[in-house]
């Protein structure tokens, strides 16, 4: 008969096997995971993989508001208005920044034109402000020495040595701190050939009894400390040394250097800074001792020229004597107008008779 309860009839042998396997288990039969294992599995499924994890936090980019764009537009319009109304002033600002921050390259050849205008007045902290010399090198660094090559009776090494001694002379004559304060330029004089009678007469007379023809300033820069005080310890220079073969196989060296000295009156409490500007052209021969009587390591003077701005025109006391305030050399004079920073012409070309009028200092 069939089971009236809705079940199914199971044979006795199958029922006994089921009971045995239930009691002892079946090898390799899958086991139902425990409750703890099921919870851990659910957590692993919810955890993101390594490629899904963000390495860091990046804040959202702020959005510009309408007010921000209005401000940017207003500033841009204002800048354009300034450029339109005062282009020269804007250019001057830019040029001034460039000029203040940029040093000139060394002068290897004569420049083709004078330097451009510079605004400003010197102060004790910025004594070269308002001067083209602000971009010049300091001291001996502003004197360009060319590469040496064998010339005349000299080898390349001898030419190089003579060019170095030439610059040593210029430094000792126009940059030595003791000489600038009035001392005798003994180191510079020691480099001059002692067997030149006319030059030796000039040297001995110029310091003892200076005059227009025997003026130590033709070769040397000196200030009288009772009248003038140098500002700081920097002298700006710009110039160059050139050479060629001279008479009797000599090495003829020509120098052309401008020196800018910032000064104030020696009176107590003086703070009004002026500048004295000196340009010298000195030509010398390093002679062959087999042909000219000379001493080793000395040169023979061939010529020397000088142009001085604010150093005391027609004043022959052996010292540079600058005027201060309204008495500067920029006032009326009986000579030509001269830009003391203009190195585009030689002294012979630009010098005239009388006291010239400096266009700037």
Structural write-up:
- The termini are far apart.
- Helix content is 29%, strand content 16%.
- It has a domain at 122-358.
- The protein has helices at 12-24, 35-46, 66-85, 87-101, 156-174, 177-180, 186-189, 197-208, 347-350; strands spanning 137-138, 143-144, 228-230, 236-245, 251-265, 274-286, 300-309, 337-338, 357-358.
- The model is unreliable at 1-8, 29-33, 43-66 and 90-100 (pLDDT under 50).
- It is of the alpha+beta class and 361 residues long.
Please supply descriptive tags for the structure shown above.
361 residues, alpha+beta, seven-stranded mixed sheet, two-stranded parallel ribbon, 9 strands, 16% strand
